[in-house]
Amino acid sequence: MVEALCADCGYPGGIANGSSVCKICQIWGDEIDVAKEDHEATPIPPESSADFHMHSTASDGSLSPGELVKLLSTSGIEIASVTDHDTLAGVKEAMQVGSQLGVQIIPGVEISAETEAGESVHILAYFSPAFWEAISLAKINATLRRIKDAREERVKIILGKLAKIDIQLEMCDVLKVAGDDGLLGRPHIARALVDKGVVSSMSEAFGKYLRDGGPAHAPYAHSLTPAEAVRLIHDSGGFSVLAHPWSLSKPLPIIRSAVEAGLNGMEVYRDPEKAKFFGEIADEHTLVKLGGSDFHGMQGHSAGCMTPGGFPMPSAAVTTFLGKAQGVWKAALQKELKTFAKREVSLVASRQEDTWSISALIPEKEKALVFRVARKAGLVQIQPLTGDVSQSTIVFKRAPQTSIQSVKSEKPSPVKDQLKKSVKAGKQPRKRKKGCEGDKVLDLKRRQQTKLSPEQ
């Protein structure tokens, strides 16, 4: 079954009832100026039905990506992002289910970082729904794989520290909780401790043993600083947001450092007090203000987790975020294509990288940009694959060297040929006179040379 496509951007799914466009296009339409504070015309309620921070079983949540999106649908959430810890593994499933249920899913991830003092800092990344796989996935995945390996090593260290205080927990106990696809983390250890009867709740597990600075706490063996995480997100074409700054012991130095690295936004919407305090800090640094529930499941791992959409975030914040993010995503697309366009043909051929592909569902404005840059680079389009339009891909390939040369070759010109012959014979070609009179003289001489009468 072919999914309904948005009339404005071509993205499948997320079509509002009785409308031909998706909810994101309804919000960031061409007439909306995100720099203005007046968003009264925004077609979503004053308190938005959006949530940009949630977790699934792809990391440490208790619901699968599909189950999570189904919960969002029944909860009235229209726009959301599944931001699992250090992995994008759940994004595809979330987007597929979202397209069926009318929930717009923005690809996201929550990247783990640490300060030099060992404090945990989380940076959220949001990517373009249209071309996140073509641009962002390959660039960020290598780092995410290293973080995954570091997470597993960290779990082993934590289990060793628990053993030293006479709490016996095996890796198999943690893996049983995490499942085959789950990214290992402290919440899995906390659940395993509950299952073993060591503690009565996950909150108790964190409070007694697993919290930062606790007796079983361990830093990552391989970690990024917050600034490095922000730069990684930008290099991958993403929009960066500092998660739950109220959980930091000294948030201001961390915020300043992240801003210097190019941080785009910060979570501020949690409760009125936090929104006021961190909202003022965000305004001071011209950061986009955002919010999310940090939902992990019906039994969240801490009191800081809320139900989806269970926080007061105004619709103006959603409008501003989507508008600003759109600018970041467009710039990433342009940069990627220009980089590809500058590669030497021989270099591309030697690496067998002579094609560049992108989703056929790119919004028309971005698609026009793709084709303009492609033409300048001497690229030719290979027709999209047939089949389900949601799976179609536009592939560009470098034109053969002979084709590029033939385009640049000049057309035969009798006048230019005559000038070349004159130069070879040692004669100085006469300069062409400017204006119509000069054209008449040149035309008369040409006719005389070919023995043609003016009447002919």
UniProtKB/TrEMBL annotation:
Gene3D superfamilies (alphabetical): 1.10.150.650, Metal-dependent hydrolases (3.20.20.140)
Protein name: Polymerase/histidinol phosphatase N-terminal domain-containing protein
Matches recorded under Pfam families: PHP
Domain Polymerase/histidinol phosphatase N-terminal: from-to ranges: 50-115
A molecular function (GO) term: 5'-3' RNA exonuclease activity
Biased composition, class Basic and acidic residues, residue ranges: 408-420, 435-446
Bias type Basic residues, positions: 421-434
InterPro entries named among the record's database cross-references: PHP_dom, PHP_domain, Pol/His_phosphatase_N, Pol/histidinol_Pase-like
PANTHER family documented for this protein: EXONUCLEASE, POLYMERASE_HISTIDINOL PHOSPHATASE N-TERMINAL DOMAIN-CONTAINING PROTEIN
Chain residue ranges for the region called Disordered: 39-63, 405-456
Organism: Cymbomonas tetramitiformis
